[in-house]
Every structure is written in C-alpha cells, then in structure tokens.
C-alpha cells in the first residue's frame, strides 16, 4: 500500500501542530495516521488514493455517511451562500429546536452550542447554578469531552485530574464511580448527598468499549438523584439520534433525565453541541436565568441546516432501519466468528454501534447460541456474563495493545478503517451497504 503522501503530510504536520494532529486520538495510529482526501458513501479515500470501508464516520456525527442526500446538501449550500452567520437569531435555529423538542421525551427547551465539550461544560454549570451545589458524580471510563470537571480519574475517595493543567482543587468537586454499580452510587449519596448537583453519565458508555447498562441501573440513577434533589444528566452526544432513533437512548430505556447533552449527529457533520431539558431548568441559562452562557458561533445557520435536514431525512426515510440492520449483521457475524477464533472476546454495541473488545478472561461459549448473539446486553443468563465488561475498568483490562498495534493495522491492510484504539466505538451509516458488511466480516476473519 502506497502511503507516500500521508507520510509527507504527517512530516509537515509535525512541524506546525502538536503531535501533528488537531485532536489527540487521531495520532493513535502508528507510525502515522493516513490523511483523507475525500469521503464516498461508506468509504474514505486517502491522500495516496487508497480506499477504505469507513466505520469511524467522523467518530460519530455522520449518520448518513459521506454522500449527503440532495435536500441536506442543498440546505447547507443555501445557508452558506447567504453569508455564513449574523450574531442575531435566524429561523433555522427555531426549526431545529422545535424538531428536537417534538422527538426527545425529556426536552422542553434547548440551547445550541458548538461542541459536545461545550455542551457538557454548560450542563455542569447549569446544574450547579440550579441546585446551588458544587459536586458532580461521573462514571469511571465515561467521556464528556475535554473539560475540567470531568477529566478526573481515581475514585470517590481520591479523585485526581487525568490531565496536566487541571488543579487538584477542581478535581475535588468531581466524584468518579464505576458504571453499573448501584451500591457505589448509594454510598456516594449517603455520604455527600447534600453536596451533589448532578450525576452525569452516558446512558450507554460509548467511549470506553460500548458498555450496556444492567437492567434497572439507569432507573436507579433516576430515583436516587430525585430523592436527593440532584439532577440527572444524560450525555447523549454519541447515543443521541443514533440509539433509539429520533427519541434517543432515553426513549429506549424509558428513563427521563433532567438534562441531556447532544453533539455529533445533531449537527449533521458540522461543529455542534446542545443542552436540552425541562423548561424550568434550562431557563436557568442567561438571559432568562442567572447561569451565564454565550457563544459567537452558537446556533450557526449552516450547522442548524445540516442538523435539521439530516434529522428530517432520517424521519422520512429508512435510515434507522438500514443502519440498525447492518449493525445487527455486523454484531451477529462477529459473534459467529468468535466461537472458533477468539471465544474469550466480547462483541458489544447496539443499534448502529459495534465493537469487538479483546477481553481475556473466562470461558468462551461453545456455540453461537450461548452468548448475546447481537452484542452484550448484560444478560445474567449468558455464559459470559461474569466476564463481559460492565465498567470502563473492565474494558481497560482487555488486550488493548493487541487491538491497536496488531489488529488495527491488519484490518487497514484489508481495506477496513476501524476506530483508532481499543476503546472508541465504531459507527454504521446510511452510506454503508451489505457488501461493506460482508467484506468487513471477511477482513475480521483474516485478522483475528
Ligand atoms: C464526543 C463526545 C463528547 C465531546 O464532544 P466534542 O464535540 O468532541 O467536544 C462529549 N461526550 C460524549 C459522550 C462524547 O462522545
């Protein structure tokens, strides 16, 4: 495979950008990332003309794939050509807000921002302003973007910043607990209940493997936050408009958070974030409330048009049926391959999310029927139940070096672009075909 151009570009990039990239995970590929020249349906073509089946899809935003349907592309062009933005409201913001309010059960009002990070930063500030409390509870292995309050490792007793540049005194307002652990959550509330502004979690951990909630766990979070006067924030930056269709993951699980953060799909491939929720909470944002929130680019007309037309297209076409069916084929096909090739590994994912976690412990199933055939659902009757990942730490203990250093490159050599490490999810888009799935499963069979 010729990679001359990518190599030369990376050489130039290293001279002018830290690590040669603008977002850390992109550099996880060794010895250097390939540079993309263009997308095409479910594929990307790199700077040297190599073509890959693309299961990264921008790390989540591209529900429709790289070829935008005509109405989406037309709306983007129309709004871009009118002069990109104004610093005063436009109709398209109202239309996207109305669409989200109509489809997402918990959202009565919404504020648009420019990234998932900005959404979670603002949600935390809003929760603190609303409750008059400072502490927030997050999940170990959860991800809420590059922000001070959530780049925190350790546990409830010893929270510490997970990045240089964050004061220990900031980290002390954050309480990390294991996902799927009701007892740990109850203990934290018994001890600090009066000080906790919010529990913030992804409804499905989707940045550290894909970890499904155990039956009743999200309900438990709902109950315990309500009992203690804290808010429940679902970070649906990945799951929003991907899991559970237009109702998002909260409609799948039937649990109604106080606040929801959005990003990725809701901007149709352009920079976006949003904070939605009950009107009396979201009205806490300035100018209606005391919690300052503002942004030059917020509600950008081109982004709003891309988001609205993407979601409308999904509402009017078989988008979710298509991506979920291919997701199911991938997960089922992978779990069939594992029976012979690597029975100790775990297939995870739901809807259009999929991943193979290189877990190492425990007996494998003797037959395909004995496991969660379409991806781990934390089924207590599954023979792998005791060994499937239930927390971020379980995923971290898997064979992530093998995944990244050996397996990823073999898949690339087979013409398949998977996410850059053993943690990040992979995404099916409307641009993918059954043939892409078949070729991908054949590549897994070679590489495993
Ligand atoms: C991607 C992501 C974020 C951060 O969004 P950015 O747009 O990258 O700032 C926050 N939360 C979750 C769950 C995410 O997956």
Characterization of the model:
The chain is of the alpha/beta class and 448 residues long. 36% of the residues lie in helices and 15% in strands. The strands form four sheets. Strands 4-12-11-10-9-5-8 form a seven-stranded mixed sheet, sandwiched between helices. A four-stranded mixed sheet has the order 1-2-3-15. It folds into two domains: 192 residues, Aspartate Aminotransferase, domain 1, CATH 3.90.1150; 247 residues, Type I PLP-dependent aspartate aminotransferase-like (Major domain) (Aspartate Aminotransferase, domain 2), CATH 3.40.640. It is globular. The two termini are 21 Å apart. It contains 14 helices and 16 strands. Strand 2 and strand 3 form a beta hairpin. The structure holds pyridoxal-5'-phosphate (PLP). Pyridoxal-5'-phosphate (PLP) binds next to helix 4.
User: What separation lies between the terminal Cα atoms?
Assistant: 21 Å
Order of SSEs: HEEEHHEHEEEHEHEHEHEEHHHEEHHEEH
CATH topology of the largest domain: Aspartate Aminotransferase, domain 2
Q: Overall pLDDT, averaged?
A: 96
Radius of gyration: 21 Å
Task: Identify the overall geometry.
Answer: globular
Low-confidence stretches: none
Largest sheet: 7 strands, mixed
Features:
448 residues; alpha/beta; Aspartate Aminotransferase, domain 1; seven-stranded mixed β-sheet; four-stranded mixed β-sheet; 16 strands; binds pyridoxal-5'-phosphate
Furnish the topology, listing elements before pairings:
Blueprint: H1 4-16, E1 36-40, E2 43-46, E3 51-54, H2 70-81, H3 91-103, E4 109-113, H4 116-131, E5 135-139, E6 152-154, E7 159-161, H5 168-171, E8 174-177, H6 182-192, E9 196-201, H7 217-227, E10 231-235, H8 248-253, E11 259-263, E12 273-277, H9 279-282, H10 301-316, H11 319-341, E13 346-348, E14 353-357, H12 392-396, H13 400-413, E15 416-417, E16 426-427, H14 434-447
Parallel strand pairs: 3-15, 5-8, 5-9, 9-10, 10-11
Antiparallel strand pairs: 1-2, 2-3, 4-12, 6-7, 11-12, 13-14, 14-16
Helix pairs in contact: 2-10, 3-10, 6-7, 11-14
The chain binds pyridoxal-5'-phosphate.
Pyridoxal-5'-phosphate binds next to α4.
